[in-house]
Each structure stands twice: as structure tokens, then as C-alpha cells.
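hey can u check if this looks right to u? its 303 residues, i copy pasted from the old doc so theres a chance i mangled smth
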Amino acid sequence: MQVLPTIRQYESSDLALVLLLIDHVSGREGEPALSDHKSHRVSNTADVKEFVALIDEHIVGYLQAAWHRASTLEEDGHWAIEAVLGDSVVGTEVLSLLLDAVLTEIPEGKIRMWASTAELVAAAEALRLQKVRQLLRLRLERSDFLPIAVFSKGAEIGTFVIDRDGADFLSVNNAAFAGHPENGALNHGDLAERIAQPWFDAEGFVVIRDCGKMIGFCWTKVHENGTGEIYIIAVHPESTGRGIGRRLLAAGLEHLFGKRAVPSVILYTESDNYAALKMYESVGFAIDREMGQYELPRHQPNG
């Protein structure tokens, strides 16, 4: 007989076991079980809601919900949740119980969940949640990387200077990602939070200026497992069509494959961002994972 877990809110004494669960699932999946901005909020901030699933006092599931401010084109923000499920549980049943707890604790506002593993996608589909976005992860192996021909002129490549470039970065980012649920309304606090992360490397934060004005950037990172990432790349809408994005991508990849000598590079993009997909695929990137974002109904159907 399948034993169903009990669900309760996270307590500070759960930290060690939750981190153990996250580390285990990360090892199983070969990548972090939680996104960056979620992982450093575990037991670390009052503005999130956290839940655990327990069987015989063992934590077999964890869920975190955090409020995402409205972006420049959104009327309202939404609650964004991510979940981590252990090995010896029935994912659909555990996820259903965790989502029930979220819906009870958060009575109003949109709630959306990222499903980044096959198990979570299967559970979300079994629960008949509505998919509202699809994100693609693309990968480029070092052995497939060839120098990228660039043709943009009249702009200068440099690197991000913390005390100088913050406001310019936010201006370009929020214009380029206007309406984007995660990246469309970054502020100085968000930037400072990311700069404080141990992976931050100013030399891997490429910026491009035209007549002294920042018009684009390519922010890279290197994960603990050695994989590189094009973390965020953007060109101000007023400067598109000039080959700036391709030039930034080339600079980011040259930093990661050259100076950092990573074996492969990943990046994430929306499945309907056709122009970006065309550029990435033209230099050798290929899709290696699909992720979905699902919206929770206020009356969640039973699995």
C-alpha cells in the first residue's frame, strides 16, 4: 500500500534535510534541481512560502513559492513555484498534495509552476495543469564550436564595471525584455543579489557601447559542474538588426570556451523566440531539454 506523505510548512530545522534532498536530485538530474534565484532563498528570506512533504519524518519533497513583480507589460505579477521530488515517491501524488497546500496558503493571485524534469512534467500533465509557456534549453559542445563571423561595426566591446554600469544594464535589460515575466522588471536589488553570487565574474559580463551608450550585453556564468552558460543576452530594441546580438554571443562564447575552457555551454530561450533560436542554431546550439510552465487552477482537479 502506497504511503502518502504529510505536508507542512517549512521549518528552520528542516534546512539540512532539504539541502540534502536538493543535492541528491541535482546529482540525479545532472544539473541544479532549483534555479539560482530559488536555491539561495531556501530558508534565507521571509518573502517566500516553503513546504515540505514527509514520510516517516523523512523529507521526500520540497516546494518554494515566491512573488514575481509585474513586468513592464504585465498588469499583475504572479506567484512562481518550483518543486523538488525525491526518488521513492509517486510524483503525481506528492506534487498534488504540495500544490493543494500552496493553493490553501495563497488564496489570491496567479500561481505558476516550472516543471524542469521529466518527472515534474509528467506529474503536471497528469494533474491536467494548463501549460502557459515552454522554455527550451540549448547546448553547444566545445568540440562543435567554431569562431563566429560578426559584421557589426561602430560599437565597442568591453566588460561590466560594477560601480559604473548598473543603471545602464537595467535600462537595456528592461527595454529588451519588456513584458517578460522573470527578466522584464529587474531593479538594483535584483542586480546586487546576482552580483553577490559566488559564480559572478565581471570578465564574463560583456557589454557593448555605441558612442559611449550601452546598447547590449552578454552575461555568462560557469556552473559548479563546469558547464558554461549564456545567462542573459540582450540588445536594446533601438539597436536591433545591426548584428549586435551575434557579436555579443561570439564574445560570450569565446570567453567561456577560451578563457574558462568549459566543455559545453547551455542557454535558455522561449520556444516561440524564433529569431533567437535561428541565431543559436546557426552557430551549433541544439535543443537538449524542454521545460514547461504551468498555471494552477483555483479548483485543482484530482489526478
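The chain has a mean pLDDT of 87.
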